[in-house]
Amino acid sequence: MTPLEIGYYAVGGLLVLIYLGMPIGIGMLGVSFLGVSLIRNDAVALRMLGAAGNDSLREYLYAVVPLFVLMGLLVTVSNVGKDTFDVFQRLLRRVMAGLGIATVFANAVFASITGISIASATVFSRVAVPEMTRHGYSKRFATGVVAGSSVLGMMIPPSLLMIVYAVLAEESVGRMFLAGIGPGLLLALVFSLTILLLASRRKALVYETPDDEVAFEDFSALDLLRKAVPILALMLVVLGGLYGGFLNPTEAGAAGAAGALVIALLRRALPVRTLWKLMVETGQITVSVLFLILAATFFSRMLALSGVPRELAALFLDSSIGPYGFLLVYLVLIVLLGCLIDSISIMLIVLPIALPVAEAAGFDLIWFGVLTVVAVEMGLLTPPFGLSVYTIKSAIDDPDLSVGDIFRGAFPFVLAMVVALAILIAFPSISTWLARL
Predict the structure, then answer these.
(1) Which of 10, 55, 178, 284 could pair with 435 as two cysteines, CB 3.0-4.6 Å apart?
(2) Which residues form the domain of 190?
(3) Do residues 113 and 235 make contact, with C-beta atoms less than 8 angstroms apart?
């Protein structure tokens, strides 16, 4: 067999192994080792595996992953999410469908200090959904708003997906974080407009009862200030330090984790058992991400050795389909994969093949990364996988609320993401202007 044929068989074999239920990281390592062995020999495969591990895991940059993960988990247990929702609820209560819009913007702010969509879905399913249903919103709509707006956790920096993409594309993590701000705000705006449109045109979908006669919990100016200060302080430390040039991404993660720890301790939300549990969970998430990145690095090098990316670039770019035809096929493929597997796994499988093609097409790789993250995040809302949907169902545990109801509630936000994706394709500067300053 030629190296090109071996590369195609390796991609096909990986898809079969994933379908059969093999863990993606192990499947990647297995087909990559076999592919390099067939193209060269076992000794080269062993050396390449060692080099991939050394090159991908020794970077100082990888300290940022556990630090931001720990910060997100500490913020989650210290009720910062509830405080964020309370602040926006108080500010937007008189706006039509104001609690829905408050949920979107609370998610946007919470995303800026967590970076994990599932954390947002867990927190706001317990905070926003009960409050919205108490004020007459339907459960389907309330859970749909939480599921839809939870995707902001992976777009607005700091973002775990942005870190993974930056490593695979060999781009700056700081620039990728900057690139996520404009698209994140765009998504929040499109989600808010979607809520307003549904509330004005399809009231039966939004409201369970026509009139809201339930009193809002009242907060004094001092209470609002007390709730807002920890949020603003963390944002100032992490984002202000990062974008002001005072801190690199790793230092910003360390400062954020230390700040979140102080908040949790001051609020007495961190008994020893909880702290130990969070440390273990941080380690588990970090190790799983780094193992997948190691496997993806080896997979990418095997593909480069086989010539598959070069052949695909020639196939797409020299044919009538052209660069933007490739982009459309790529984004559709990612959305379809999102129905089956998780976000990080999609990126690790697809990017080693797609990035060389995108580079040959002349695409800005930061812009390409933003489009990738938005398309990947749609998978959190689409059946049958829909991780955010299942997270909300697990957190609420209401027998009268089916998974199908949550999927139907989230569907308008999937359409909103399609609109946002089209805008980002049409106007690349939304993604790149901050990153290129």
Answers:
(1) 178
(2) 3-432
(3) yes
